[in-house]
Amino acid sequence: WSARSARRAFSPKMQAQPTIAPQMSVALHRSLSEPGQVIIRCENINEEVKQRTAAEWSEFRPTTTVLAVTDQAAEQLAELTPFVGGLERRGRMTIFRCQNFACELPEIVG
Questions:
Q1: Residue ranges of the alpha helices (H) in the chain?
Q2: Three-state SS at 93
Q3: pLDDT mean over 38-46
């Protein structure tokens, strides 16, 4: 079954009883939402980076991944995930907010 056909088949039941299939509701949400990414590039993980990461996590965005990436980790990840490896740090910390791997202009800290 494709996600679309499953959605069509179960839609009447889910509308009548939304609590009948919570995992299906989660899957439905994920299939209708583009994934988001917040990448915090930094020299190392320090208290400032931890605070910024916690601030990003504090917002409810269930389809967004928040990731702090050090310079060393970016070098190691570059071949495996070119998207992350290509996000360069400027200043003490650079925050990239992306939707479906397309990023807004970065926020440069320091």
A1: 3-16, 22-32, 47-57, 71-77, 82-85
A2: strand
A3: 97
Give per-residue pLDDT as tens, 13-41.
878 887 777 777 777 777 778 899 999 99
Please tell me whether the overall predicted TM-score, pTM, comes out greater than 0.90 for this model: no
The pLDDT value recorded for residue 22 is 79
Among residues 91, 78, 81, the alpha carbon closest in space to that of 37 is found at 81
- Quote the CA–CA distance of 75 and 88 in Å, as a whole number: 10
* C-alpha triplet 87, 92, 97: angle, nearest 5°: 40
Report how far residue 77's alpha carbon sits from residue 37's, in angstroms, rounded to the nearest whole number: 16
In angstroms, the CA 60 to CA 63 distance is 9
Two tokens at 69? 């990436």
